[in-house]
Amino acid sequence: MKEFNLELPQNELVLEEAYLARVIGYIQEEILRNTQKKRQVYDEIIEYRKGQLDEYRSDEDKQIDYFDHERYVQEESFKSVEKRLTELTELAGTPYFGKVLFREKGAEEEGIYIGKYGLVDEESYDPLIIDWRAPIASLFYKGSLGRDKYQAPLGDVEVDITKRRQFLIRDAELHGVFDTESDVRDEILLEVLSSNVGKKLKDIIMTIQEEQDKIIRDRREGVVVVNGVAGSGKTSIALHRTAYLLYNHRKLLENKVLILGPNNMFMDYIAQVLPSLGEGGVHNNTFKDLALSLLNYHGPIFMGEDYTEALISGDEELMEDTRKKRSAAFQEALEQQVDITERTYFEFREIRFQEVVLMDAEEMERILLRDFKHMPFFKRAERLKRMLAKRLKDARDVKRLAIDKKYEELRKKMKASGEDTSEWRNMRRTDIRRLMAQVSLARDTFREFAQGDYFNAYVPFKTFDFLTEADIAPMLYLKHRLHGVKLPFTVQHLVLDEAQEYSLLHFKALKEITGCTSMTIVGDVNQMILAGESPMKDLSSVFDQVRPYHLTRSYRSTFEIMDFANRFLKENKIVPLVRNGKPVTEHLEVDLDAAVDLIAQTVENYRRDNLDTVGILTRDMETTRQLHRLLRKKINVKLIDSEDALLKGDLYIMPAYFAKGLEFDGVIMAEKASGDAEESLIHYIMATRALHELTRITFRDLHFY
């Protein structure tokens, strides 16, 4: 680790070191107390279990009830203790990273220390560490000293920020301390950003910038939309915002947050961030997997890497179809189809049972088109069917009473005249059977109001003989409008990552299905696989209370890498952080054998530079697979040829579209040389995956392989 000067007067440095020692000592005591508490709870459960087994030995049902209860007790008791032990163990190495001194109006100056988790002295009730998610902790992330405010439960509190101090604490030792008047000091930011990325995305609480913190702490209500360049921290912002909202709205949001990412590999990559921030119980999925489960469609769909490959290879028909189904015009056409279905699917007519009018045409039209407009169409039809069934039952009961009355009077007359009443019974039975047969026939006419088929309604919108990935969102929206789609869990906050690829119908379907009015949507319109206008830029036609943010500063890569990546952008250029590194190396139009040797040598060079993770990125799957066949003779590289693959190991080769959202310490852009002068946004995606070093190698065609 780089050593830093401790930029404090000696007397203040002594005080800070003493406070650190006090906090570390208290944390160690808390670890011991919680360890003993865990052991005590465990022993109590064991003793209780023994007693209950003896008591219920002869009653199996009670044993089952007991074990269900016991499992709950064990989970709840251990969950809180183990969670706290995990937090304390992490705090023992790095208890805090910041301090802010401030003065409220008419009060003395006070200071708070900011860390990943909060810590309170149980005897004095003094807050030793404030959780970074607490409202008052926002003072640490403010841009400058002076007058400011933070949100408290009873309203805003105005303060005067007098000092902001940052610490580098590793293994319970103070390595650096700085006073700063604005954002995170470059020394600390560079220390964190210069480290290797690792195999999973990490939290950024030490280096959250003011523009990022503003988004993270934005209010829960409404839709936050972040369009940010590569490396601006979009995914980290979304996940830290989720942790912040869970901390401050626990009762409302616990187990009610849904995060949707582009593929399962990406979801695995980000999986450790929320647990590392002390949060769990969040639902994770991809839009495709979620949609297909809700559609309950098991037929063939052209999607995933095959679909993406066809787009980047220039399949004109598929590109045109995809653009069409992302458009506002297509959404309007689908809405018109819903309207046509509602008006023409059933014939509005009078429905009778014998001479009784159960429902006239006007009432049927009113029920299906107006009274229950808030319900999906075929749900309205089910409601109408139940209404008809109830009215039919009432009419049947009236008819049955009339039959009973008629034959009761006949029975009395026959009895008075001394006639045989057995014939009366036969006649009554015949009339009742005839009535029930007519009721059954009437019920059969109601069957037309059973559920229809959303797929048949979508058939006119199919471009090909098969479905494609572009059909999934429209079909889901259509099914919801016609049938209703229900999630198996409640969603109070929805997070959408890599949302630049979403169409209007993606957003509209998710809004309708979740019923969610609180969302965080992040993406980079520069990283669209199919270039065009992303609906993410303006979602005011879909959502109320849209609050857009645009991030142009990148914190991921060196200045040299970002400058290289900017070559591939016509607008929305990246503003790089001033972190210098090695120049980007290019080897253009070399022979294939030489290219393979260069790739292997570059990997070896990266290893010598202590880069942990390396990504070899290509333009398409064909190049990926063929290069892998050649490279595996020289280096041990993992082939990523499926969006469900897991990132195991530290050297990968994959198409660039799989790498969106991922980071590597070093990247090798490996691609076939092209005579096309127009640089592709695929190159932008490739280049911006690299943190520290980037090499570009182009080679002649692979066709003979």
TrEMBL record:
GO molecular function terms listed in the Swiss-Prot or TrEMBL record: 3'-5' DNA helicase activity; ATP binding; DNA binding; hydrolase activity
Domain UvrD-like helicase ATP-binding: 207-558
GO cellular component: cytosol
Family matches, as Pfam families: UvrD-helicase
Coiled-coil region(s): none
Keyword field: ATP-binding, Helicase, Hydrolase, Nucleotide-binding
UniProt superkingdom: Bacteria
PROSITE patterns: UVRD_HELICASE_ATP_BIND (PS51198)
GO biological process, one term: recombinational repair
Record bears the keyword DNA-binding: no
UniProt: ATP binding residues: G228, V229, A230, G231, S232, G233, K234, T235
InterPro entries to which the protein is assigned, alphabetical: DNA_helicase_UvrD/REP, P-loop_NTPase, UvrD-like_ATP-bd
Name of the protein in question: AAA family ATPase
Species assigned in the record: Proteiniclasticum sediminis
UniProt lineage: Bacteria, Bacillati, Bacillota, Clostridia, Eubacteriales
